[in-house]
Structure of Band 7 domain-containing protein:
Amino acid sequence: MDNRYSDNVVEVEKKSGHDTPTCNYDHISSDDGGGFCDYFLTFVSILFISFTFPLTLWFCFKTVQEYERAVIFRLGRLKKGKPSGPGLFFLIPCIDDCTKVDLRTVSFDVPPQEILTKDSVTVAVDAVMYYRVSSPMAAVCNVANYMTSTSLLAQTTLRNILGTKTLAEILSDRETIAQTMQASIDEATDPWGICVERVELKDVRLPQQLQRAMAAEAEASREARAKVIAAEGEQKASRALKEAADVISESPAALQLRYLQTLSTISAEKNSTIIFPLPIDLLASMMKK
């Protein structure tokens, strides 16, 4: 029996003077040739189906949903052509075997990873990844379990990328880190027929001692800013008060009006207070002495 299998067709694209190989999974198929045993077993199977008709119809026709595809193997070889589906397709029960592949987008929660950052801080980071099968044949033939392999690769990539970042970069540049992870995982899973659509960091958990230290640092920074703002306000107020005093000192009538306005304010707010007005001229003469 001829057990030859065709290799993946590699198309070479020339970009910026460099040859970039890309795999075309639509051409993954077995050789057209088959041995005598293949033809004999196929003939016997068709003959058996004919003799047991219509009972064998329950085993010959299969259906797949709109979001599924069926990868068919005939006598261990990948059947020529594209995956079957959606809808109804024909199988030879004795020699055909099919594997259904779901094409919908799958969300996967990356378990929390204990990571030592570049500045020697231990943090626990978890993420979520969205991926889908872009080539059912590659997902079945090129990797044993594409879901497990993709999840393990996501965990390893998360540790590798965050290990090169400081704590401040992890907390502030989540979007950039997610895009880097998405590109790295998508490139690695491309031979498996997996397309990674999106990666997001869910949560970054810090040790309790570090949280308290960061909270104290933030509180001290806010208090320092508040004191600076208050000092600037007092400085501006003192300058305005000095300018007002200079203007009032140039006009005795303005000083008299200010004195009467102060008396009016006190009498309005402090109703139980008895005020004995003192002539401003007397105060002026005393101030000169």
In short: The two ends are 128 Å apart (CA to CA). Residues 110 and 152 are 9 Å apart (CA to CA). The longest strand covers residues 122-133. The beta strands are 9-15, 18-24, 61-64, 68-74, 77-78, 87-90, 96-102, 106-116, 122-133, 194-205.
